[in-house]
Prior knowledge:
Elements: E1 2-10, E2 13-16, E3 25-28, E4 39-43, E5 56-58, H1 61-72, H2 74-84, H3 92-108, E6 116-119, E7 133-140, E8 143-147, E9 153-157, H4 165-171
Antiparallel strand pairs: 1-2, 1-4, 1-5, 3-4, 6-7, 7-8, 8-9
Helix pairs in contact: 1-2, 1-3, 2-3
Amino acid sequence: MYYFINWIHTADGYRPALPEDLAFVMLAEPGTASEGATFALFECELPEDFPASEAVEPVPDRLAELLDSAKAYPPALALTRDQVSKQPTYSKHDFTEALVQQLRFHLDGQRAMPFFLAVARVTELGYKEAGGYYWIVGYQSGTVAWVSRDYFVYHDPVEHFDLDRSELEQRFDKRGR
C-alpha cells in the first residue's frame, strides 16, 4: 500500500513516523525534510493492528493506481520523483496533484521515449550491481542518467554500463533526453 507519512525528527536526523523495524520504500517527497518537507510518499505494508493516525494516511485511489502502473515502468516513477522533489513544499492535496500530473505525463509519453535497459559493469554498494539491468533515461557529455531499484535517478560515467556511445548519441538528443 501507498501512504503519505509524516517525518519525525530524531537524534540521527529524520525518519518516517513508522515503527523502526517496519520495511518501507520512500517513493517521493516534496523537497526534503531538512528543507521543511513534513511528509513523504512511501510504500509499505502496515500490520493489521497498526493504530490509525494522522501521521500515516493512505493515498487517494487514483494516485495508487498510477503508482502501480509506474512500478511496471520505473522511468516514470523515477523521473516523477526527481521532478516533484525539486518543488517547494506542497500540501498533501497539491503534492497528489503534482504526482498524478507527472506520472500521467511519463506513462502516456513512454512510447516516444528513448529509454532502455542496459547492463551495469560496475557495482556501487546499495545502488547497482555489476551484471544487473538498469533503465537508462539520459545521456550527456559522457554521463548516463539511470534508474536505481528504489526509483532514484543517478548519473554515472558511460563506462559503468555496457553501452555504445554512438548508440546513446543517436537515442538521446543534445538535451540529454
